[in-house]
């Protein structure tokens, strides 16, 4: 699978209309499931290596519009990992305490420690997306915040944390279907908010804000635009990208200072 075609190149100006939302990579649903099952064992192994080594961390950023599939990705992709080595952080509307600090204060506190895979379900990018669309900050402030974000991510990388960022790219029609599904299924009513419709009405404004945010992609902190109309391909593609990155990190089990062959465990 050629995952590089979904990566935003460093310095590339993003126009989301150029990225398909319904791409399936040439796979069908059943084939994708078989491939995903085979990837899960490898993902688990390389996560264990990362955890055992304890020298590196991996931060995964998930961003999407409402009903874009962030929670589903967490469930179906990161479910392959040992929960002991995964930290999921959700960033909602800032509290009074958080607003009293700089916008990255609450984010830095949730950065994963070495040995851990951290997942940001929404992230520091919300502060240049929602705030911008709702005119809580102006263009100048947004530009400065994006610069601060790039510097913040560079600092994390210098400290041993690798970063991958995923934008789950869905179409307006797919979002409509998913929101309707939440209305039709009583078990999903809790997922629906009337505010979702107000945000949906701002689709063009969010598109412009996302395009600028995605254009900050770098070699060391890349954005991937993930076609997410097909949930099964979304999960397969993200899993493949994660496995490639974990393999590239090449975490090793730590050496021990004893000879296991010489140790005998006594009977009790």
From TrEMBL:
UniProt keyword Transferase, yes or no: yes
GO biological process, one term: polyphosphate metabolic process
Domain Polyphosphate kinase-2-related residues, every copy: 28-252
Key words, A-Z: Coiled coil, Kinase, Transferase
An annotated Gene Ontology molecular function: polyphosphate kinase activity
InterPro entries: P-loop_NTPase, Polyphosphate_phosphotransfera, PPK2-rel_1, PPK2-related
Keyword RNA-binding in annotation: no
Residue stretches in coiled coil: 29-56
Matching NCBIfam families: PPK2_rel_1
Name of protein: Polyphosphate kinase
Organism expressing this protein natively: Deinococcus puniceus
């Amino acid at each position: 699978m050629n995952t590089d075609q979904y990566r935003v190149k460093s310095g590339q100006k993003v126009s989301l209309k150029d990225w398909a939302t319904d791409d399936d990579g040439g796979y069908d649903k059943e084939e994708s499931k078989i491939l995903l099952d085979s990837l899960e064992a490898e993902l688990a192994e390389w996560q264990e290596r990362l955890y055992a080594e304890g020298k590196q961390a991996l931060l995964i950023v998930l961003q999407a519009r409402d009903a874009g599939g962030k929670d589903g990705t967490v469930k179906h992709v990161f479910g392959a990992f040992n929960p002991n080595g995964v930290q999921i952080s959700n960033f909602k509307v800032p509290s009074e305490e958080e607003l009293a600090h700089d916008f990255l204060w609450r984010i830095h506190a949730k950065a994963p420690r070495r040995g851990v895979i951290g997942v940001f379900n929404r992230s520091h990018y919300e502060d240049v997306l929602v705030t911008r669309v709702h005119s809580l900050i102006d263009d100048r402030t947004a530009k400065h915040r994006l610069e601060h974000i790039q510097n913040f991510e560079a600092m994390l990388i210098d400290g041993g944390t690798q970063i991958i960022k995923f934008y789950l790219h869905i179409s307006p029609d797919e979002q409509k279907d998913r929101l309707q599904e939440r209305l039709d299924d009583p078990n999903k009513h809790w997922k629906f908010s009337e505010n979702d419709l107000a945000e949906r009405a701002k689709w063009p404004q969010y598109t412009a804000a996302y395009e600028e945010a995605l254009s900050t992609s770098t070699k060391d902190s890349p954005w991937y635009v993930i076609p997410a109309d097909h949930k099964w391909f979304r999960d397969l593609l993200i899993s493949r990208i994660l496995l490639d990155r974990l393999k590239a990190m090449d975490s090793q089990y730590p050496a021990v200072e004893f000879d296991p062959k010489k140790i005998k465990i006594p009977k009790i």
